[in-house]
Design goal:
By secondary structure, this protein is an alpha/beta fold. The chain has helices at residues 18-24, 44-56, 71-74, 80-96, 132-143, 154-166, 169-180, 191-227, 252-261, 273-277, 284-291, 323-335, 365-387, and strands at 4-9, 28-31, 60-65, 101-105, 116-120, 126-130, 230-234, 267-272, 295-300, 302-305, 311-314, 342-345. The strands form two sheets. It has an eight-stranded parallel β-barrel, surrounded by four helices. It has a four-stranded antiparallel β-sheet with strand order 5-6-11-10. Strand 7 (230-234), helix 9 and strand 8 form a beta-alpha-beta unit. It binds D-mannose.
Length: 389
Protein backbone atom coordinates (compact mmCIF):
# COMPACT_ATOMS: atom_id res chain seq x y z
CA UNK A 1 0.00 0.00 0.00
CA UNK A 2 1.53 3.31 -0.99
CA UNK A 3 0.97 6.71 0.53
CA UNK A 4 -1.89 8.65 -1.06
CA UNK A 5 -0.30 11.05 -3.50
CA UNK A 6 -2.36 14.18 -3.15
CA UNK A 7 -2.61 17.71 -4.41
CA UNK A 8 -4.08 20.87 -2.97
CA UNK A 9 -6.91 22.26 -5.02
CA UNK A 10 -8.37 25.63 -4.10
CA UNK A 11 -11.68 24.78 -5.75
CA UNK A 12 -13.35 25.71 -9.04
CA UNK A 13 -11.53 29.08 -9.15
CA UNK A 14 -8.10 27.49 -8.95
CA UNK A 15 -6.22 28.10 -12.21
CA UNK A 16 -4.94 24.53 -11.82
CA UNK A 17 -7.73 22.19 -12.88
CA UNK A 18 -8.70 18.74 -11.69
CA UNK A 19 -7.63 17.47 -15.09
CA UNK A 20 -4.16 18.96 -14.49
CA UNK A 21 -4.03 17.22 -11.14
CA UNK A 22 -4.79 13.90 -12.76
CA UNK A 23 -2.09 14.47 -15.33
CA UNK A 24 0.35 15.18 -12.51
CA UNK A 25 -0.42 11.69 -11.27
CA UNK A 26 -2.11 12.51 -7.97
CA UNK A 27 -5.11 10.50 -6.87
CA UNK A 28 -6.09 12.41 -3.77
CA UNK A 29 -7.32 15.98 -3.54
CA UNK A 30 -6.88 18.32 -0.60
CA UNK A 31 -9.51 21.01 -0.71
CA UNK A 32 -11.59 23.39 1.38
CA UNK A 33 -14.61 25.62 1.03
CA UNK A 34 -12.52 28.77 0.97
CA UNK A 35 -15.46 30.96 -0.04
CA UNK A 36 -17.19 30.46 3.30
CA UNK A 37 -16.30 32.98 5.99
CA UNK A 38 -14.15 31.68 8.84
CA UNK A 39 -16.34 30.30 11.57
CA UNK A 40 -19.41 29.55 9.44
CA UNK A 41 -20.98 26.09 9.49
CA UNK A 42 -20.07 24.18 6.34
CA UNK A 43 -23.42 23.14 4.87
CA UNK A 44 -23.69 19.46 4.01
CA UNK A 45 -24.94 20.25 0.49
CA UNK A 46 -21.91 22.39 -0.30
CA UNK A 47 -19.56 19.71 0.97
CA UNK A 48 -21.35 17.12 -1.12
CA UNK A 49 -21.23 19.35 -4.16
CA UNK A 50 -17.44 19.82 -3.86
CA UNK A 51 -17.03 16.11 -3.34
CA UNK A 52 -19.14 15.36 -6.39
CA UNK A 53 -17.03 17.63 -8.62
CA UNK A 54 -13.83 15.98 -7.39
CA UNK A 55 -15.15 12.46 -7.79
CA UNK A 56 -16.59 13.15 -11.21
CA UNK A 57 -13.07 13.98 -12.31
CA UNK A 58 -11.96 10.56 -11.09
CA UNK A 59 -10.24 11.83 -7.95
CA UNK A 60 -10.89 11.46 -4.27
CA UNK A 61 -11.23 14.22 -1.66
CA UNK A 62 -8.93 12.84 1.01
CA UNK A 63 -8.23 15.79 3.32
CA UNK A 64 -9.94 19.05 4.14
CA UNK A 65 -7.36 21.77 4.44
CA UNK A 66 -8.44 23.69 6.35
CA UNK A 67 -11.52 24.10 8.40
CA UNK A 68 -10.23 27.41 9.79
CA UNK A 69 -10.40 27.93 13.53
CA UNK A 70 -12.08 31.27 14.15
CA UNK A 71 -10.07 33.90 16.01
CA UNK A 72 -12.73 33.92 18.74
CA UNK A 73 -11.70 30.34 19.54
CA UNK A 74 -7.98 31.05 19.37
CA UNK A 75 -8.41 34.01 21.71
CA UNK A 76 -11.28 32.43 23.61
CA UNK A 77 -13.32 35.58 23.46
CA UNK A 78 -17.01 36.38 23.12
CA UNK A 79 -18.84 33.99 20.82
CA UNK A 80 -16.21 31.30 21.31
CA UNK A 81 -18.88 28.76 22.31
CA UNK A 82 -20.96 29.55 19.27
CA UNK A 83 -17.97 29.08 16.96
CA UNK A 84 -17.08 25.83 18.70
CA UNK A 85 -20.58 24.55 18.07
CA UNK A 86 -20.29 25.66 14.43
CA UNK A 87 -17.00 23.81 14.18
CA UNK A 88 -18.48 20.64 15.59
CA UNK A 89 -21.35 20.92 13.13
CA UNK A 90 -18.95 21.35 10.21
CA UNK A 91 -17.13 18.22 11.35
CA UNK A 92 -20.39 16.28 11.59
CA UNK A 93 -21.32 17.42 8.10
CA UNK A 94 -17.93 16.47 6.69
CA UNK A 95 -18.18 13.05 8.29
CA UNK A 96 -21.69 12.64 6.89
CA UNK A 97 -20.21 13.24 3.45
CA UNK A 98 -17.57 10.60 4.08
CA UNK A 99 -14.56 12.86 4.67
CA UNK A 100 -12.47 11.97 7.67
CA UNK A 101 -9.21 13.92 7.77
CA UNK A 102 -9.16 17.60 8.62
CA UNK A 103 -6.21 19.97 8.75
CA UNK A 104 -6.20 23.20 10.75
CA UNK A 105 -3.72 25.53 12.36
CA UNK A 106 -3.58 27.48 15.57
CA UNK A 107 -1.34 30.31 14.39
CA UNK A 108 -2.53 33.66 15.71
CA UNK A 109 -4.15 35.91 13.07
CA UNK A 110 -1.75 35.17 10.23
CA UNK A 111 -1.42 31.85 8.49
CA UNK A 112 1.95 31.10 6.85
CA UNK A 113 4.25 34.07 6.40
CA UNK A 114 6.75 34.96 3.69
CA UNK A 115 8.36 38.23 2.68
CA UNK A 116 8.90 37.54 -1.02
CA UNK A 117 6.76 35.40 -3.28
CA UNK A 118 9.01 35.57 -6.32
CA UNK A 119 12.59 35.00 -5.18
CA UNK A 120 14.51 34.25 -8.34
CA UNK A 121 16.65 31.14 -8.28
CA UNK A 122 19.75 30.70 -10.41
CA UNK A 123 17.82 28.66 -12.97
CA UNK A 124 15.21 31.41 -13.38
CA UNK A 125 12.45 29.64 -11.47
CA UNK A 126 10.79 31.54 -8.62
CA UNK A 127 10.48 30.44 -5.03
CA UNK A 128 8.91 31.71 -1.82
CA UNK A 129 11.31 33.40 0.55
CA UNK A 130 11.39 34.53 4.16
CA UNK A 131 13.84 37.23 5.14
CA UNK A 132 14.18 38.54 8.66
CA UNK A 133 15.32 42.00 7.59
CA UNK A 134 12.29 42.40 5.33
CA UNK A 135 10.04 41.29 8.15
CA UNK A 136 11.76 43.86 10.36
CA UNK A 137 11.17 46.58 7.74
CA UNK A 138 7.47 45.77 7.95
CA UNK A 139 7.43 45.45 11.72
CA UNK A 140 9.50 48.54 12.56
CA UNK A 141 8.51 50.98 9.84
CA UNK A 142 5.12 49.95 8.46
CA UNK A 143 3.35 48.33 11.36
CA UNK A 144 5.42 50.38 13.84
CA UNK A 145 4.90 47.84 16.60
CA UNK A 146 6.10 49.15 19.91
CA UNK A 147 9.17 47.39 21.26
CA UNK A 148 9.64 45.51 17.99
CA UNK A 149 13.32 46.33 17.75
CA UNK A 150 14.15 44.07 20.69
CA UNK A 151 12.89 41.05 18.80
CA UNK A 152 15.58 41.20 16.11
CA UNK A 153 19.32 40.64 16.05
CA UNK A 154 21.24 43.91 15.83
CA UNK A 155 22.54 42.95 12.41
CA UNK A 156 18.97 42.48 11.18
CA UNK A 157 17.82 45.85 12.56
CA UNK A 158 20.72 47.51 10.80
CA UNK A 159 19.87 45.82 7.51
CA UNK A 160 16.23 46.76 7.94
CA UNK A 161 17.09 50.43 8.41
CA UNK A 162 19.18 50.44 5.25
CA UNK A 163 16.52 48.66 3.26
CA UNK A 164 13.75 50.90 4.50
CA UNK A 165 15.58 53.98 3.26
CA UNK A 166 16.21 52.42 -0.13
CA UNK A 167 12.78 50.82 -0.77
CA UNK A 168 10.27 52.69 -2.92
CA UNK A 169 6.73 53.19 -1.68
CA UNK A 170 5.62 50.52 -4.09
CA UNK A 171 8.11 48.03 -2.69
CA UNK A 172 6.94 48.82 0.82
CA UNK A 173 3.29 48.36 -0.14
CA UNK A 174 4.06 45.05 -1.78
CA UNK A 175 5.98 43.80 1.21
CA UNK A 176 3.16 44.79 3.50
CA UNK A 177 0.62 42.92 1.38
CA UNK A 178 2.72 39.79 1.15
CA UNK A 179 3.14 39.61 4.90
CA UNK A 180 -0.54 40.25 5.56
CA UNK A 181 -1.66 37.58 3.13
CA UNK A 182 -2.48 34.13 4.41
CA UNK A 183 -4.38 31.74 2.22
CA UNK A 184 -4.72 33.54 -1.13
CA UNK A 185 -8.42 32.77 -1.51
CA UNK A 186 -9.18 34.16 1.91
CA UNK A 187 -8.00 37.76 1.63
CA UNK A 188 -5.73 40.10 3.60
CA UNK A 189 -5.77 41.27 7.14
CA UNK A 190 -5.58 45.07 7.60
CA UNK A 191 -2.76 46.79 9.49
CA UNK A 192 -5.21 48.02 12.12
CA UNK A 193 -6.63 44.56 12.65
CA UNK A 194 -3.14 43.12 12.94
CA UNK A 195 -2.11 45.72 15.50
CA UNK A 196 -5.23 45.07 17.58
CA UNK A 197 -4.68 41.33 17.44
CA UNK A 198 -1.06 41.62 18.49
CA UNK A 199 -2.26 43.46 21.60
CA UNK A 200 -4.84 40.78 22.35
CA UNK A 201 -2.30 37.97 21.97
CA UNK A 202 0.17 39.81 24.16
CA UNK A 203 -2.22 39.27 27.04
CA UNK A 204 -2.89 35.67 26.11
CA UNK A 205 0.76 34.75 25.78
CA UNK A 206 2.27 31.37 25.06
CA UNK A 207 0.69 29.58 28.02
CA UNK A 208 -2.71 31.10 27.32
CA UNK A 209 -2.65 30.10 23.68
CA UNK A 210 -1.79 26.53 24.66
CA UNK A 211 -4.77 26.54 27.01
CA UNK A 212 -7.02 27.80 24.25
CA UNK A 213 -5.84 25.08 21.90
CA UNK A 214 -6.43 22.43 24.55
CA UNK A 215 -9.92 23.85 25.14
CA UNK A 216 -10.64 23.73 21.42
CA UNK A 217 -9.42 20.15 21.11
CA UNK A 218 -11.29 18.98 24.19
CA UNK A 219 -14.48 20.47 22.91
CA UNK A 220 -14.33 18.72 19.54
CA UNK A 221 -12.83 15.32 20.44
CA UNK A 222 -16.14 13.65 21.31
CA UNK A 223 -17.52 14.55 17.90
CA UNK A 224 -14.32 13.33 16.25
CA UNK A 225 -14.52 10.02 18.06
CA UNK A 226 -18.19 9.58 17.27
CA UNK A 227 -17.78 10.38 13.61
CA UNK A 228 -14.30 9.02 12.90
CA UNK A 229 -12.80 12.40 12.03
CA UNK A 230 -9.05 12.81 12.50
CA UNK A 231 -7.78 16.31 13.18
CA UNK A 232 -4.30 17.33 12.08
CA UNK A 233 -2.65 20.48 13.35
CA UNK A 234 -0.38 22.25 10.90
CA UNK A 235 2.90 23.44 12.43
CA UNK A 236 3.66 27.14 12.65
CA UNK A 237 5.17 28.49 9.49
CA UNK A 238 7.80 29.74 10.11
CA UNK A 239 8.32 27.84 13.36
CA UNK A 240 9.11 30.68 15.75
CA UNK A 241 7.31 33.75 17.07
CA UNK A 242 6.97 36.62 14.62
CA UNK A 243 5.59 40.14 15.14
CA UNK A 244 5.39 39.46 18.85
CA UNK A 245 2.72 36.78 18.36
CA UNK A 246 2.96 33.59 20.42
CA UNK A 247 3.55 30.29 18.63
CA UNK A 248 2.73 26.90 20.08
CA UNK A 249 3.28 24.35 17.32
CA UNK A 250 6.86 25.06 16.35
CA UNK A 251 8.99 22.15 17.50
CA UNK A 252 9.03 18.62 18.83
CA UNK A 253 8.23 19.62 22.40
CA UNK A 254 5.22 21.63 21.26
CA UNK A 255 3.83 18.77 19.20
CA UNK A 256 4.37 16.26 21.98
CA UNK A 257 2.75 18.63 24.44
CA UNK A 258 -0.31 19.00 22.22
CA UNK A 259 -0.64 15.23 21.76
CA UNK A 260 -0.19 14.44 25.42
CA UNK A 261 -2.30 17.28 26.73
CA UNK A 262 -5.35 15.98 24.88
CA UNK A 263 -4.35 12.38 24.61
CA UNK A 264 -6.98 11.05 22.25
CA UNK A 265 -6.43 9.34 18.92
CA UNK A 266 -8.17 11.95 16.70
CA UNK A 267 -5.83 14.64 18.03
CA UNK A 268 -3.26 14.32 15.27
CA UNK A 269 -0.63 16.15 13.32
CA UNK A 270 -0.11 17.36 9.79
CA UNK A 271 3.59 16.73 9.41
CA UNK A 272 4.90 19.66 7.39
CA UNK A 273 8.60 19.24 6.64
CA UNK A 274 9.00 22.72 5.21
CA UNK A 275 7.45 24.51 8.18
CA UNK A 276 9.38 22.56 10.77
CA UNK A 277 12.52 22.46 8.64
CA UNK A 278 12.71 26.27 8.53
CA UNK A 279 13.77 26.29 12.17
CA UNK A 280 17.40 25.46 12.89
CA UNK A 281 16.18 23.98 16.21
CA UNK A 282 14.25 21.29 14.34
CA UNK A 283 15.31 17.96 12.89
CA UNK A 284 12.25 16.77 10.94
CA UNK A 285 13.28 13.11 10.84
CA UNK A 286 13.72 13.03 14.58
CA UNK A 287 10.40 14.82 15.09
CA UNK A 288 8.61 12.37 12.83
CA UNK A 289 10.03 9.49 14.83
CA UNK A 290 8.63 11.04 18.00
CA UNK A 291 5.16 11.97 16.79
CA UNK A 292 4.66 9.60 13.85
CA UNK A 293 1.90 7.53 15.42
CA UNK A 294 -0.35 10.59 15.33
CA UNK A 295 0.60 11.80 11.86
CA UNK A 296 -2.40 11.45 9.58
CA UNK A 297 -1.31 13.81 6.81
CA UNK A 298 2.00 15.11 5.47
CA UNK A 299 3.21 18.16 3.57
CA UNK A 300 6.50 17.47 1.87
CA UNK A 301 8.76 20.29 0.79
CA UNK A 302 12.24 21.52 1.47
CA UNK A 303 13.94 24.72 2.59
CA UNK A 304 17.39 26.20 2.52
CA UNK A 305 18.35 28.47 5.41
CA UNK A 306 21.26 30.89 5.79
CA UNK A 307 23.16 31.82 8.96
CA UNK A 308 20.58 34.45 9.94
CA UNK A 309 17.68 32.05 9.60
CA UNK A 310 16.40 33.50 6.32
CA UNK A 311 15.19 30.72 4.09
CA UNK A 312 13.89 29.98 0.63
CA UNK A 313 11.91 27.00 -0.52
CA UNK A 314 14.33 24.73 -2.35
CA UNK A 315 13.71 21.73 -4.60
CA UNK A 316 11.71 19.03 -2.87
CA UNK A 317 14.58 16.60 -2.51
CA UNK A 318 17.46 18.98 -1.90
CA UNK A 319 17.73 21.39 0.98
CA UNK A 320 18.11 21.29 4.72
CA UNK A 321 15.41 18.67 5.21
CA UNK A 322 16.61 15.10 4.83
CA UNK A 323 13.75 14.10 2.56
CA UNK A 324 15.07 10.60 2.14
CA UNK A 325 15.04 10.15 5.92
CA UNK A 326 11.54 11.61 6.19
CA UNK A 327 10.19 9.44 3.40
CA UNK A 328 11.76 6.32 4.88
CA UNK A 329 10.02 7.00 8.14
CA UNK A 330 6.71 7.80 6.43
CA UNK A 331 6.80 4.64 4.35
CA UNK A 332 7.46 2.59 7.48
CA UNK A 333 4.61 4.29 9.33
CA UNK A 334 2.31 3.76 6.40
CA UNK A 335 3.04 0.05 6.42
CA UNK A 336 1.47 -0.17 9.86
CA UNK A 337 -1.69 1.67 8.92
CA UNK A 338 -5.05 0.45 7.82
CA UNK A 339 -5.68 3.77 6.08
CA UNK A 340 -2.80 5.00 3.92
CA UNK A 341 -1.37 8.39 4.87
CA UNK A 342 -2.00 11.15 2.32
CA UNK A 343 0.86 13.48 1.48
CA UNK A 344 1.03 16.38 -0.88
CA UNK A 345 3.99 18.08 -2.51
CA UNK A 346 3.70 21.26 -0.53
CA UNK A 347 4.41 24.24 -2.74
CA UNK A 348 6.56 24.18 -5.83
CA UNK A 349 8.61 26.63 -7.80
CA UNK A 350 7.02 28.82 -10.40
CA UNK A 351 8.81 27.52 -13.47
CA UNK A 352 8.61 26.88 -17.22
CA UNK A 353 5.26 28.02 -18.67
CA UNK A 354 3.94 28.91 -15.25
CA UNK A 355 6.34 31.88 -15.17
CA UNK A 356 4.01 33.56 -17.64
CA UNK A 357 0.78 32.70 -15.88
CA UNK A 358 -1.12 34.05 -12.93
CA UNK A 359 -0.71 31.43 -10.24
CA UNK A 360 -1.36 31.15 -6.54
CA UNK A 361 1.95 31.69 -4.71
CA UNK A 362 3.53 28.30 -4.09
CA UNK A 363 0.69 26.53 -5.83
CA UNK A 364 1.49 26.68 -9.54
CA UNK A 365 1.14 23.38 -11.41
CA UNK A 366 4.51 22.55 -12.90
CA UNK A 367 6.69 23.03 -9.83
CA UNK A 368 4.39 20.83 -7.79
CA UNK A 369 4.23 18.30 -10.59
CA UNK A 370 8.01 18.11 -10.43
CA UNK A 371 7.90 17.79 -6.65
CA UNK A 372 5.29 15.07 -6.75
CA UNK A 373 7.19 13.14 -9.40
CA UNK A 374 10.40 13.26 -7.38
CA UNK A 375 8.68 12.30 -4.15
CA UNK A 376 6.77 9.51 -5.79
CA UNK A 377 10.00 8.06 -7.16
CA UNK A 378 11.65 8.36 -3.80
CA UNK A 379 8.74 6.59 -2.15
CA UNK A 380 8.77 3.78 -4.68
CA UNK A 381 12.52 3.25 -4.36
CA UNK A 382 12.36 3.15 -0.59
CA UNK A 383 9.30 0.90 -0.47
CA UNK A 384 10.84 -1.60 -2.91
CA UNK A 385 14.18 -1.73 -1.18
CA UNK A 386 12.45 -2.21 2.20
CA UNK A 387 10.50 -5.14 0.81
CA UNK A 388 13.66 -6.64 -0.56
CA UNK A 389 15.10 -6.85 2.94
C1 LIG B 1 0.53 26.93 3.10
C2 LIG B 1 -0.22 25.97 3.86
C3 LIG B 1 -0.98 26.57 5.01
C4 LIG B 1 -1.90 25.56 5.61
C5 LIG B 1 -2.66 26.01 6.82
C6 LIG B 1 -3.36 24.87 7.48
O1 LIG B 1 0.90 26.68 2.02
O2 LIG B 1 0.57 24.93 4.27
O3 LIG B 1 -1.73 27.64 4.55
O4 LIG B 1 -2.86 25.20 4.68
O5 LIG B 1 -1.83 26.61 7.71
O6 LIG B 1 -4.34 25.38 8.32
Amino acid sequence: MSLIQSWRWYGPNDPVTLQDIKQAGATGVVSALHHLPHGAVWPLEEIQERKRIIEEAGLQWVVVESVPVHEAIKTRSADCEMYLENYRQSLRNLAAAGISTVCYNFMPVLDWTRTNLAYELRNGAKALYFDWADLAVFDLFILKRSGAEQDYAEEVVQQAKERFSSFSQQQLDELSEIIRMGVPMEGFITLEHLTDSIEIYKNIGHAGLRENLAYFLESIMDVCEETGIKMTIHPDDPPYPILGLPRIASNKEDLLYIMERVDRAPNGICFCTGSLGAGSHNNPVEILKAVGHRVYFAHLRNVKKDHLGNFYESDHLTGDVDMYGVMKELVALNEEREQPIPFRPDHGHQMLDDLHKVTNPGYSAIGRLRGLAELRGLEMGIAKSMKGK
